[in-house]
Amino acid sequence: xxxxxxxxxTTRLGDQSIDRSKVIHFxxxxxxxxxxxxxxxxxxxxxxxxxxxxSLEDPGLGLLVTDPYGFVxxxxxxxxxxxxxxxxxxxxxxxxxxxxxxxxxxxPEKTTx
Length: 113
Hints:
Blueprint: E1 6-11, E2 14-19, E3 24-25, E4 38-43, E5 50-55, E6 62-66, H1 81-87, E7 99-100
């Protein structure tokens, strides 16, 4: 039997069907979340620069993320030689950069990237 191209998951945005090609696999997890390896990026709505990096293993875990260059034009990242080797890249221009966003409840002016 052929495997469905869609994956039905429960997310922080409710029940969703995710195209299996949109699953992002982090072989070593994320810092502090090493036990979670499967995620997908979800658009929250069309009018926001923010996305939800949703865990496919923990429906309650979704990290608000954004492209930092929309907020900090001179944002710099450093990729070590080991990371470049692991990612099979030669420079940072070959990767998409997203940062987590923290918006304190009731204090949007204290938002941090």
